[in-house]
Amino acid sequence: MSELVTVILAAGKGTRMKSALPKVLHRIGGKSMVEHVVDAANFAGARQNIVVVGFGAERVQNELTGRADFALQEKQLGTGHAVMQTESLLKDFNGTVMVLCGDTPLLQGELLAKLYAEHRAVNAAATVLTAVMPDPSGYGRVIRNTAGEVHKIVEQKDASAGELAVREINTGIYCFESQLLFEALKQINCANAQGEYYLTDVIGVLVQKQAKIWAVTAENYHDTMGINSRLQLAQAEKIIRQRKNMSLMEQGVTIMDPDSTFIDESVKVAQDTVIYPFTWLEGRTVIGSGCVIGPNTRIQNTKIGRDVTLHFVYAHDCEIGDGVTVGPYVHLRPNTKLDNGVKIGNFVEVKNSNIGENSKIPHLSYIGDTDMGARVNIGSGTITVNYDGKDKHRTTIEDGAFVGCNSNLVAPVTIGQDSYVAAGSTITKDVPPAALGVGRARQANIEEWVNKKKIKEKGE
Ligand code: UD1
Ligand code: CA
Question: What is the number of the ligand 1 atom nearest to the C-alpha of 75?
């Protein structure tokens, strides 16, 4: 079993976000910031993640139910104080504690794995993940001795002019040997510019004890960026989107304009699919090969087969087979299943329905709560009347049926196999197989009506 446990600090309010939502629950790339951190921790092999919660504790716990344990920090007295709250959970633990922050969503599992591996390989008491920043302001600075060893970490507000010039910063991510960490935490105090218990002071304490301190420097400082404001949230969002688009392109997906294509990390797209601009692919969406998606298409939690064309479509919680064509201007609502070869044309809405192989709904229809067989043709403007004001009812349309334009199918009702519905019908009774259902008044022509009307008008 892995000897790695993480402590993820997430008790702060995130004042600069100006938000009622705890900072770590703000979403980026389709999931909350803290979820990104938990995923990276799991990749690195953590056997347990302990999240320190405070502001909005309940909401953070709900978000991570089953994926983490929690320690409550009632008052936010500093990062050192936050880690102290996990002591009772870790008192029998002898392995490595990796401390992370909940607001660093760009972290990648590979970097954490590397940090842990080096920490173990050199047998350090503590290993700090550092980064060299073009502009280090706001961060704690990593102060090394003449031999290049980490001597201490000093916060911006406590730093001398010389220390402020250092561009190597503390990312706030560390590995500690558990027992040494909790011993050292007992020796820190809050005699500093912010009156807080700084976790960073643990490094100084361990140096005093001549314990081995190691540092790993992140190659790309973006990866450890902490999000404090909406501006940084947007900047990080962009980076996460770029990463996803890049990895899909490497796997053989064409993305015509990556700057206007928004794909969640969780989405899978197979080779030789082409994605047009202004397309959002979200949640548990999976797309097969050879598809053409977009432009202006939003797909959520939908499984799509091969060689599918979706053109100006909004689809959520659906399933789409192979060779299906949808759009433009189509809304596919939850629990819609389109079998292979289905064609859905312009201005159509389909909800909670099964549409059988090679059936066509080419124009201006609402199909809801319907079970449709194969090779059905639905004429333009057809509506399933599924709601009586109180309950929803289902419509069944069997294989090969042909429904004429502008029909109303009043559910519950069955249109039998190979039957016809006359255009303009309002169908309230089942149509038997191979029958013609006509549900409209017979046309009558009144001869000379216009002339009679004119005579009448003159007479008045
Ligand atoms: C901290 C580090 C700094 C480092 C920076 C990296 C200290 C003293 N300083 O500074 O060296 O460069 O991170 O981003 O550790 N938190 C709690 N409880 C608290 C205080 C903070 O849970 O009482 C959490 C916050 O919610 C946040 C994280 O700890 O997720 C970091 O806290 P923050 O106040 O942002 O630390 P910095 O001042 O940025
Ligand atoms: Ca702070």
Answer: 23
